[in-house]
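Field notebook, page 363. I keep forgetting to write these up properly, so this time I am using the form the group agreed on. The chain and the ligand, 6-O-phosphono-beta-D-fructofuranose, are recorded exactly as supplied. Prediction of the bound pose follows.
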Amino acid sequence: KRRIGVLTSGGDAPGMNGAVRAIVRMAIHYECEAFAIYEGYDGLVKGGDMIRPMAWEDVRGFLSEGGTLIGTARCKEFMERPGRLQAAKNMIAKGIDALIIVGGDGSLTGADIFRAEWPGLLEELVASNELSEQDVQPFKHLNIVGLVGSIDNDLSMTDATIGCYTSLTRICEAVDSVDTTATSHQRAFIIEVMGRHCGWLALMTGVATGADFIFIPENPPPATWKEDMCDVIKKHRAMGKRKTIVIIAEGALDQELNKISPNMVKDVLSTEAGLDTRVTTLGHVQRGGTPCSYDRMLSTLQGVDAVRAVLECTPETPSPVICIVENKIVRRPLMEAVAQTKEVATAIKDRDFEKAMRLRDAE
Ligand code: F6P
């Protein structure tokens, strides 16, 4: 019987539990044994009770729960080889040689490094008499499959990451609430949304709520942004609009790559447009709560395919990440997706904003 471990890593995202549920149940369906690794890579490094067998009923009710019920952490030990050595030993102790990781690009890269090192780690464990040749013999290859759980929708090669639509829904609801009070007072609001270095949440919120102005890192505004923004907003006001909503991504920059902060925008709207202006930073409410139907569906379909990928991949197959492209669940080489994601950051650093936008469009 194959033994498959699942862990969630990095920032939690709504829908991660749906993925864990699908993986556990699909593993059981294919007559494998499923193990939950608690608290992300921390659990892998600590081993013991942090790696627990999962039965069908252990994931009952998971689909509609937000966050991650098996816990997550940003683990420093796993970033160093001794931590990964310990993790390999713990996995062999439990008979696990396949891992499904639900996390962001950093967590998935860590998993691929682990896979590349795996034979060397086993040799080291044998050489130091921690394990015998017999112990490691059945575990010569490690299978890694990634699912992207992140509200940021920042991984290339997939149209959506698990959690991004729940977050977008939550943000839109918040903007709708701000709208009513803004309209009552004829105020302007600067609403800062998450996304780290990615502007997807900010851009889609702007589209979905009819915001007046949007700042995203991939398309920084020119040096004239203060005047440009005031012109647009004054035009909207002249047309009878009683409120002003500006959406700013937390990673927003100007073309010189200086940060544009919500307070900078507030000062401009107060002094130059003469508007009574407030700043609302939505924070972690954007990441919490019940997953929307899309994230339940996405995490379930991807969890199903992740188990199939474990069973189908040969030692020669590059580690896959399960994606969704034009509404189809597809597998892509994990490290290619990570490399393309990094290219966006490099394009921004090189101030090649056209390329950054093109690379995001390609997603
Ligand atoms: O990656 C998800 C995310 O919520 C980002 O949007 C945000 O920048 C970051 O995590 C916040 O991290 P933390 O929860 O560690 O404050």
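OBSERVATIONS:
- The mean pLDDT is 96.
- The longest helix spans residues 105-127.
FOLLOW-UP: compare against the apo run.
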